Amino acid sequence: MEVFKKAVPISEAVKKGEGRVTVRGWVYRKRVLKEKIFLVLRDATGILQLVLPREKFKIAEELNLESSLVVTGVLVKEPRAPGGVELHVENIDWVYVGEPYPINEDAAVADSEYLLDVRHLWLRSRKMQAVLKIRHTVFGAIHEYFRKSGFYEVQTPMFITAAVEGGATLFKVDYFGQPVYLTQSSQFYLEALIYSLEKVYVVAPSFRAEPSRTRRHLTEFWHAEMEIAWADMEDAVKVGEELITHVVNKVLEERQAELKLLGRNTEMLERAKPPFYRVSYDEAVEILRKKGVRISWGDDIGADEERALTLEFDKPIVLYGFPEKLKAFYHRNDPRRPEVTLSFDVLLPEGYGEVIGGGERIYDAKELVDKIIRFGLNPADYQWYIDLRRYGSVPHAGFGLGVDRLTMWIVGADHIRDVVPFPRDVRRTRP
Ligand code: NSS
What we know:
Elements: H1 2-5, H2 10-16, E1 19-32, E2 36-42, E3 47-53, E4 68-77, E5 85-96, H3 105-108, H4 112-117, H5 119-122, H6 126-148, E6 152-153, E7 159-160, E8 172-175, E9 178-182, H7 187-197, E10 199-207, E11 220-229, H8 233-254, H9 256-261, H10 267-271, E12 277-280, H11 281-290, H12 303-310, E13 317-320, E14 333-334, E15 337-341, E16 343-348, E17 353-360, H13 365-374, H14 383-387, E18 396-402, H15 403-411
The structure holds 5'-O-[N-(L-asparaginyl)sulfamoyl]adenosine.
């Protein structure tokens, strides 16, 4: 073990630029010349070119990509090498020769299905490495934002018994012979918790039996949800704007190298500052009609319509005031205009579309029961949720943000699967 411990991270070695060091990692590229072998070694922090005299290191010829290595050598300036420095290897301290690696970076990139089959290995690519680092920053920034803004972090169950977002996308689980479901959203639990803590948030998986394969749907996704007591829709919108801005700024601050490696143009990210554009559902229908989209008042604004809409704006949009029938039963209807709800979505620019769904909740017990019945649901299924309105109810609002979708936009990915280490969709539960 001694030998592993004396290694320094590759980024540190590159920064040092001279002298003798030990580094460890995996063979990322290999080039065999007549007298020398060039290897590019990769670790979690970066890459470093190694130069090995062929005569002395016979074993280097057998090193397949992704073989693991610990080497000691002398750092030498070399403008043609990545980072401007290379390591002239004096000693191989440890080696594990891998079998021929089944991914050829350049050839495989074209075949995304194959890369999903070997996702457990593809995670080692520099591209996935950059995405995973950005994802790390996104999750950290979400927690940081909520905690500095006075929210309490809470934990909610994943096994549930009543639909939050409609019965169509529930995953049924056999729970000791009883049917239960995987949660679609922690919202109802957050609504219970505000009566204790007033401002709460949770970051957890949500599950939806989404039957179609789209660029932005997973069956298991990460959901950052919040709920605030004594609050209206505008309060929730402000939190959404601040949260997105905070996360984006954090990534711009900490992850320039990764954004660059991914070829992301960051102009739109830099523009994402509050206030976002406010567009009512009514206005959205007008804008879309003017663009030649066939849509009437009351129709859903789906992925294609969202895309068309976001391309008209250079910042995220807060789309609000949806017709009652387009949104779940718990949304409070606007008392001044009962046919629409006090609900909103945040749409990301550049065609990405919905990342947040939220709004004001019905806080009156009778109004809630009436709407549950109007929506053809059974109040008995929502007994404890209705109970919350029986003991000192207050106006409250909240939202859910799809963390994978936010990450997708930040890195500029074409597909949500590209930003999740082990994505789950209708066809894929492995690896
Ligand atoms: O269905 S939502 O619009 N709203 C809710 O679930 C509320 N109950 C949240 C709340 O108010 N506490 O989903 C919220 C967000 C949505 O905007 C997407 O960004 C994301 O969750 N979402 C998804 N991401 C990936 N894949 C799927 N299938 C998915 N469904 C929703």
